[in-house]
Amino acid sequence: MRIGYARVSTQDQNLDLQLKALKKAQCQKIFREKVSGATANRPELQRMLEQIRSGDTIVVWKLDRLARSTRDLLNTMEALGDVGAAFQSLSEPWANTTTHAGKMIMTIFAGIAEFERGLILERTGAGREAAKKRGVQFGRPRKLNSDQVQIAQELLNNGKSVPEIARTFNVHTATIYRLAGTD
Questions:
Q1: Mean pLDDT, the chain, whole residue set
Q2: CA distance 127 to 133
């Protein structure tokens, strides 16, 4: 079955141009959505992906109607491939997994995206290490400085209650329990 997906970003926009193209492409069923592509919450897209079967072809007017990013597109392509469905963009003839050339192009895209992910991870790791060497602290800021920690521990050792110490430093009791080692 040829299944169409049409999307515009706002309620004010019109789906007519896409619907006409999808009907001309002989789509038997068309899912319609009026929601920004920037949002991950696209109920009609999810409904369509849940209903596809082996041998189906998902057809869109343009790639940007389906995916927000290359990563998003590749994830969708993987989901289609997992069930044995194909994909076709009417405006980008190279984005057509019903042909051998289209499959090759999408495979190249997937390889490039994987390469890019690896580079990003590598750069991020190197940047974190360099920052640590410069003394940059990661994570949430500490609630108590080292002097306050020392005073709080002395108060604990002298029998003061955790809630009382927490009120003194205006912190949650969990902060003091962590100091005491009794999470």
A1: 89
A2: 10
Report pLDDT for 53: 95
Helix, strand, coil shares, percent, the chain, to 5: 55, 10, 35
Helix (H, G, I), strand (E, B) or coil at 20: helix
Has 91 been annotated as catalytic?
Answer: no
Backbone angles phi, psi at 58, to 5 degrees: -85, 130
- How many Cβ atoms from other residues are within 10 Å of residue 66's Cβ? 24
What residues contact residue 92 under an 8 Å CB cut-off, 6+ apart? Answer: 62, 63
The residue annotated as part of the active site, out of 9, 89, 146, 161, is 9
Dihedral angle of Cα 120, 123, 125, 131, to the nearest 10 degrees = -140
Q: Rg of the chain over CA atoms, in angstroms?
A: 27
